[in-house]
């Protein structure tokens, strides 16, 4: 059957990437629609449309401020009906305000006239516009939570310089999560207020630590996100140092946890001096580096260990890192993974939505398995890869995979068809702001992938860790149960999941990996 | 408001971008106003230039 492609362009019409994703999802559900897209007419999006075989002359001529709806369908009538439905959804979603409702302001200044006491701007506009919007907010005396990604580092430096000159926070760019005064910003797990103050690079590292702290009975005072590049040479730890100073001064914080990437040379001593001056106990976790330390900071090598060390310190207990919480149970699960075909691909593929979790997994895996690539194609000779699908290159013009689980589901199904893949390693991140049921689409994709592998006479193991709390809107236990029902081995913590996955690929590693039972 | 004062005060948020975040903040009980933001007309690269001229 032939496929017809039709598109319609709405001039000067803007909707955010999440609204557009939902429109596309609804069009895809229509009988006879093969594929659908709803996106802004930026050059990158038009190229993506062409790659997907959805480009038409109308779509090709769209401007960045125009909205494109495009569908591939079985018949012309189905395509036209789908486009009409798409337009109706867009119209319905942007209804006029009812009686007593205020018209949403179009600019920051108009918003400040409505809400003169505002003290923080949450900015999630597309990357090219982020500096302009964040700068306006800082100039008007607002702290900034900057979720936007694809922001050049020179813009980050300029924004943070401006923020510091006014003693304001600039959290980000690419800051997925923060907590201030008990309020979660961005992707935020539901946790109690407490006495642990966190300074964290971006998103999932902070989420993993606060969720683990919650399980250990500790809450957080503040969680200040600084962006993944803050400790790099150009940014020079600007916001990290400022955040440490603020947490040190605040009486609500009894202990500080620093979570991030290894600082660039020359920055670590400044960070350590600031932590020593804080006058409070400090736990540090810079993934990929275990600084020798100056005696003031307890450095640990995993996110879970950071939370456990914080809880132990506050309880006045000595902290001893543990390999596996329950090694016996892990061994039994490993044995069960061996059911099914004997043939198994030699490579491990990690498909992550959390950047910090992906970095942690790579650090655990490389000493066990050898080089691990960070890209979907090419890379190391071993064939192992751990990819952060929330990275800038995958999110141009489309929502983060924590909002759009289908972005990863497609890759999981691809992995099922790739004969070299023997183990899939996954994260699942819950919380406010995240997709309402991320386990559903992921579990369905894993089931498809494992079915495809079995049909080809191969065994495909799937291993995951889940970041979240029972109070999260998705519910922790239900999400874990959905993954386990799809045959995924769910481990407590990202580092444990990575170690377990290595053993699932290479049974000879099991004694070394699981033997260090605590 | 300086950071020292912010940490201890209720947040009053202006949300610019994903509308989802405004509804999540409101659901948490925060005071939030959502800006019906649209990109400035023309090439996104112009926005980057505009940023350097702001204020």
Describe this structure in words.
- The complex is a heterodimer of chains A (518) and B (55).
- With 518 residues, chain A is of the alpha/beta class.
- Chain A has three domains: 4-93, 2-Layer Sandwich (Gyrase A, domain 2), CATH 3.30.1360; 174-314, Rossmann fold (3-Layer(aba) Sandwich), CATH 3.40.50; 327-515, Rossmann fold (3-Layer(aba) Sandwich).
- In chain A, 40% of the residues lie in helices and 19% in strands.
- In chain A, the strands form five sheets. Chain A has a five-stranded parallel beta sheet with strand order 10-9-11-12-13, with helices on both faces. Chain A has a five-stranded parallel beta sheet with strand order 15-14-16-17-18, with helices on both faces. Chain A has a three-stranded antiparallel beta sheet with strand order 1-3-2, sandwiched between helices.
- The mean pLDDT of chain A is 92.
- Helices cover 38% and strands 18% of the residues of chain B.
- Chain B has one domain (3-51).
- In chain B, strands 1-2 form a two-stranded parallel ribbon.
- The mean pLDDT of chain B is 82.
- Chain B has helices spanning 3-6, 19-27, 44-51; strands at 12-16, 31-35.
- Classes of the chains: A alpha/beta (518), B alpha+beta (55).
- At the A-B interface, α1, α5, β4, α6 and β8 of A face α1, β1, α2, β2 and α3 of B.
A few lines on this structure:
The complex is a heterodimer of chains A (518) and B (55). Chain A is α/β, with parallel strands linked by helices and 518 residues long.
CATH class descriptor of the largest domain in chain A = Alpha Beta
User: Tell me about the biggest sheet of chain B?
Assistant: 2 strands, parallel
State the shape of chain B: flat
Oligomer: heterodimer
- Quote the average pLDDT of chain B: 82
Topology pattern of chain B, helix = H, strand = E: HEHEH
Counted by DSSP, the helix tally of chain A is 18
Give me the Rg of chain A, rounded.
Answer: 24 Å
